[in-house]
Amino acid sequence: MKRDRHGGQCGIFEAGRCTPVCLILFFSTLLLSSCASSHSDRIVVGSKNFTESLILGELLAQQIEANTHLKVERRFYLAGTYICQQAVLAGRVDIYPEYTGTALTAILKQKVGGDKADVYQRVKSEYEARLGLTLGPPFGFNDTFAMEIRGDDARRLGVKTLSQAAAFAPQWRAGFGYEFMERPDGYAGLAAAYGLHFAAPPRIMDLGLLAPALKGHQIDIAAGNATDGLIPALDLFVLDDDRHYFPPYEAVAVVRQQALQQHPEVAHAIAELGGKISDREMRQLNYALDGQHRDVKDVVHEFLWSKALVH
């Protein structure tokens, strides 16, 4: 249940072989194709298969349940961006949490660039014009990629930025998730932007293993996420993206326009979540699951109660 919040698209088969990621996509597609798409009597909320997406999916589900008379079906732990996008386009999911930078680069295939407001509006306009989808207001936090090193290394070397880290990269072992290696705003572009050359090709690892591997000195730098609750708990240090390579990754709800036409009350429920979660609060929510191993329904209910959104 670890972090895989930004997912790119890839083909099912590559060069006559099937990669682990593609196997996941292939079987997830089969699973989705077997799901009924007619659900006019309820709202289906999806999520990707990592902690933060699960929390946001549950947040949307409880908010809709508390503010409408609709039944909510939870269809969580879908693989990644590609599967969630296919599910919402096919009408098997009505709403799921996404990130504006991911939508811009991985779905719309547009170049990185623009501030938060510009990227949000570009994605919203394109989704409405081309895909029959729309965006809810940003939840309030920006979950950008976080290039992490050990805190003791940052202090010992005096490294604070990715530009400074480039001098030490030839002695470092890197570890990244599958999709970070493939996506257009991932490793290749980052390495070119900063002139990063590591001691060996990056190790491709499950995202749940990256932080422990970094802490355990199996790797020396990893691509995590800015709202990861384990960053302070494991004394990791996030290098500043001083050349502003990564676009904004504001968390938003992607919603089928047809679902909002059938159930306009859902739009009001989602709108109330706009601006309600700060970066610090999202880290705390993630830590409640990843660090304290609490139940997501309890964590989300307490959060909504603290914001006076449920009683």
What does this structure look like?
With about 300 residues, this protein is an alpha/beta fold. It folds into 2 domains: about 20-140 and about 250-305, Periplasmic binding protein-like II (D-Maltodextrin-Binding Protein, domain 2), CATH 3.40.190; about 145-240, 3-Layer(aba) Sandwich (D-Maltodextrin-Binding Protein, domain 2), CATH 3.40.190.120. Helix content is about 45%, strand content about 15%. It has 15 helices and 10 strands. The protein has helices spanning about 20-35, 50-65, 80-90, 100-105, 115-130, 150-155, 160-165, 180, 185-195, 205-215, 230-235, 255-260, 265-270, 280-290, 295-305, and strands spanning about 40-45, 70-75, 95-100, 135, 145-150, 175, 205, 220-225, 235-240, 250-255. A 5-stranded mixed β-sheet has the order 7-6-8-5-9. Helix 2 links the parallel strand 1 (about 40-45) and strand 2 (about 70-75). Helix 4 (about 100-105) crosses helix 5. The longest helix has 17 residues, at about 50-65. It is globular.
